[in-house]
Specification:
Length: 355
């Protein structure tokens, strides 16, 4: 029997609640696919800061490094907002990304079942849309040097630098092509090559990499046009690969086509170990009340099976169970007429029942 080690780091707020439900689902799906799991749970974020004085304790980092995959809930909360930036809960995320070499962030935007009514767009525009945004995660303008605010000619000047090396572009482009290969073999590379030299290089390198993937059809789009097209006709997209900042913005835009933050999973990959987490935060406003929607985290477990364990059918089983459950049951964030409102724990139980 295959044995896989999973580091479970629930974090803060609703992270604790949604992870508990996702772990139950993970165990059941693993058992259904002849896989044995060894779980190690460790604190991260504000919870870890309270216990150890740091949001990413060494023991947590080691557990993640020793694992085959990591499941993260969410970090942050009002309680820790006044802490120094260096020990804020959110710092743990940056630490984990760089320590685990997670340079690619995969964010699917897909509508499950009749949740289509939760979208703010017209049904005919979004129905059937299924987009994967592959965002570069450890380079570009969020990390480039020089950066900062300085005085020039007697006034403050803010500086950030957009910088991408050929090798950084090549590795994320490969993730883009390989992701597209597993989907409908269509890749859109988003840049601003008409204005930014760094993304002119981006386009050149993506074209070079495309020679190794003749089965994937590639097109290029400027980011401003891509934003318009995403809202005008989202079904033209399958896989999008783009820079850190453009991906940050476009993935939120694409995700909102689906209407609810409680439904959005994500995967961060690139190194040996993948990290899986819901897109939402710790939601302090509903934490501890059994109101959170655990489906984003449960769907993140699905991505873990596909991307870390190469078990696409396990992800499909989870997605199918989620669609079946949504037919009758909803958490408060996605509630609509004719459905039964349930809490976080019962939503987890319902998904389990259908696996
Ligand atoms: P949030 O995503 O936590 O919440 C935004 C809104 O969506 C809230 O009204 C919340 O109740 C609702 N919501 C979020 N997830 C939900 C779910 N699963 N079910 C039902 N409703 C849900 O964003 P925020 O309020 O801006 O941030 C709260 C804290 O989370 C902050 O400390 C922030 O820094 C942190 N945060 C962490 C992450 C992460 O861990 N990756 C991501 C975003 C924000």
């Amino acid at each position: 029997m295959t044995v896989k080690k999973i580091a479970v780091i629930p974090g803060d707020g609703i992270g604790l609640e949604v992870t508990k439900e996702a772990v139950k689902v993970m165990k059941k799906v693993a058992a259904n696919h002849g896989m044995q799991l060894e779980l190690e749970e460790q604190p991260v974020g504000g919870t870890a800061y309270d216990l150890t004085g740091t949001p990413l304790p060494e023991a947590t980092l080691q557990a993640c490094k020793n694992a085959d995959a990591v499941l993260l809930g969410a970090v942050g909360g009002t309680k820790w907002e006044s802490l120094d930036f260096s020990v804020r809960p959110e710092r743990a995320l940056l630490g984990l990304r760089s320590e685990l070499g997670l340079y690619a962030n995969l964010r699917p935007a897909q509508i499950y079942g009749d949740l289509i009514d939760a979208s703010t767009l017209k049904k005919e525009i979004v129905e059937g849309a299924n987009i994967m945004v592959v965002r570069e995660l450890t380079g570009g303008i969020y990390f480039g040097q020089p950066r900062g605010v300085e005085i020039r000619n007697g006034e403050r000047v803010g500086i950030n630098t957009l910088v991408y090396s050929e090798s950084e572009i090549r590795r994320i482009a490969k993730v883009g092509f390989e992701t597209a290969q597993k989907r409908s073999k269509k890749l859109t590379s988003v840049d601003k090559a008409n204005v930014l030299e760094a993304t002119e290089l981006w386009r050149d390198v993506v074209i070079e990499v495309s020679k190794d993937y003749p089965d994937v059809s590639l097109n290029h789009m400027y980011v401003d046009n891509a934003t318009m097209q995403l809202i005008r006709a989202p079904k033209q997209f399958d896989t999008i690969v783009t820079t850190n900042m453009f991906g940050d913005i476009l993935s939120d835009g694409a995700a909102m086509l689906t209407g609810s933050i409680g439904m959005l999973p994500s995967a961060s990959i690139g190194g040996k170990i993948g990290l899986y987490e819901p897109v939402h935060g710790s939601a302090p406003d509903i934490a501890g009340k059994d109101l959170a929607n655990p489906l984003a985290t449960i769907l993140s477990v699905g991505m873990m099976f596909r991307y870390s364990f190469d078990l696409a059918e396990a992800e499909e089983a989870i997605q199918k169970a989620v669609i079946t459950v949504l037919d009758q049951y909803r958490t408060g964030d996605i509630m609509s007429d004719g459905k039964k409102q349930i809490g976080c724990v019962e939503m987890g139980e319902q998904v389990l029942k259908h696996l």
